[in-house]
Amino acid sequence: MKVAFVYIAPDIRGGTERAIAETSKRLEKMGCEVKLFCNRFNKETALPELVEMDKQVVPHRLSLFGRFRMYYSMKAVRAATLVASKWNPDIILLGAGFLWSKYILKGINTPAVSRVHVPVPIEHSLLNRVYRKFTRLDVIEKQSLVYKPIVCNSKYTQSMILKLEPNAKTEVVYAGVDSAFFTPTWEDEGYVYLNGRFQSYKNQLLAIRALKNSGYKLVLSGYANPRVKEEVRYFELLKKEADNCSNIEFVIDPDKSKIRELYQRSSLVLVTSVGDPFPLVMLEAMACGKPVAGLNSGGIPELIENVGLLFENDPIDLRKKVEILMNDSKLRKELGKKARAVAESFTWERTATQFYEIFKREIEKQRFSN
């Protein structure tokens, strides 16, 4: 089976990029030939696994002086998909553009499936609504939501899509975690750990405000993409908020092994993202046998309901939950063991197998219809 993955710019080291690398690796072990088609790829900032992956870059404008990103992204994914179709794949996986699949796949007869891994836009400003009507994006989205199957990375994502279109063809395929790499050492060095790219929706600011000048050490790791001004500004804001706080430490751009070490030595892990459908850091922390305190938002409650604590988007509530866990080592160990057991069931092999079955079904469906 030839599988074409289509993405816009998978050249950062985020959860989506990790999912591409791990899923494609398992599909190849199952006998598939996988090729990545994208509009931009910077090997200096990308995951090593994606640098090595067979790929074709189809350059395309992604905005007009920083504006109209949605419109130009739609055009870019269309361009990459047209090139992908000439490779004669058996199936196309749209890793971007599920809201525009009707336009992207116009004139392409190859079976296709969309994958959603980002927050789903539900509400739009007045200006954006006018812009969407002028560019016909609203019509394209309505048609696309019922055009091809949409694979969601969480039940939360699925519920958001069904709010947009109750008749959308959706199913959930969870990401996995490499439990052979992310393993428990059962160390506990008394600090709270938060890992994630420095983006405003990752909400690290909440953790800093909750724990600065407290009796708890907070370690934050991640990086800000220097090409993205919003990320650079947000990182500067985080550093300013943590200025002169001796209990807050930043670890900039750690590699995978360093991240594992930081998980393993921590007492608990925070997940503060707002509206994040399914942060992979949850699974990584759980695989390392750590209790997780997570924001009651997005897809976070789906995973940590029985292996951690939830808090609201409020510094006082976050600090209360940290205090509960930090003051009870027995509870931390108990939740950590439960977390490890749950994480072991979330394998990349399961993720790849589910995608493979979906691909087979869609290929057979198209053959039958032809």
Automatic annotation (TrEMBL):
SUPFAM superfamilies for this protein: UDP-Glycosyltransferase/glycogen phosphorylase
InterPro entries: Glyco_trans_1, Glyco_trans_4-like_N
Ranges for domain Glycosyltransferase subfamily 4-like N-terminal: 14-179
Pfam families: Glyco_transf_4, Glycos_transf_1
GO molecular function: glycosyltransferase activity
Domain Glycosyl transferase family: 187-341
Alphabetical list of PANTHER family matching this protein: GLYCOSYLTRANSFERASE (PTHR12526)
Protein name: Glycosyl transferase family 1 domain-containing protein
